[in-house]
Fold this sequence. Notes:
This protein has 185 residues and is α+β, with helices and mostly antiparallel strands. It has 6 helices and 9 strands. It folds into 2 domains: 2-80, D-amino Acid Aminotransferase, Chain A, domain 1 (2-Layer Sandwich); 84-183, Phosphoribosylglycinamide synthetase, C-terminal domain (Glycinamide Ribonucleotide Synthetase, Chain A, domain 4).
Amino acid sequence: xxxxxxxxxxxxxxxxxxxxxxxxxxxxxxxxxxxxxxxxxxxxxxxxxxxxxxxxxxxxxxxxxxxxxxxxxxxxxxxxxxxxxxxxxxxxxxxxxxxxxxxxxxxxxxxxxxxxxxxxxxxxxxxxxxxxxxxxxxxxxxxxxxxxxxxxxxxxxxxxxxxxxxxxxxxxxxxxxxxxxxxxx
Length: 185
C-alpha cells in the first residue's frame, strides 16, 4: 500500500535521523504501471488537492492543527464523511504561460449556491465592485456527494456557470475513476 511503501518509510526515516516530524506532510504521488511513485513532499497542504479534502472533513480543521502543534494529535479523532469529492481548476487562457489579468468574472454566486459545491478563489481580486482575474489558476471548484458520479456532476455543473474571457478547465477530470467504478460495480 502507499502508506506502507511511501508514507511510513518517510516518517521512520526522519525519526531515525532524530528529525521527528510534526505538522502536515503533503505527498504528491503518481500511479504508474510499476506502482505508485513519489513526485514530491511539501510541508503544507496541496493545491488543489486540499479543496477536495476539506469539504469531507468532519470537525474543526483549526482544532486538528492545534492538536498537532501541541503534540496531542493522537488524542484527536480525525473523521471524514463517507462521500466523494472532485475539484476542477478553472484557469485563465494562456496558463501556464502568459495570461491576461483584470478580466471580469461572472457566475460565481450562482455556482457557489449549488448544493454540494464550494468555489475556492485562487487568482482573483476585487476591482471596485467586480471580481476579476489576478492569476493563472483562478478558481478551484469542488463538488461533493454520496457517490463519485454525483460529486463529479456537481463540480462540472458549477464550473459551467462561471464565465470570463478565455477561461478553461479540463473536461477529463475523474474520467478514469468513473470508468473504473462503472466497470467494477
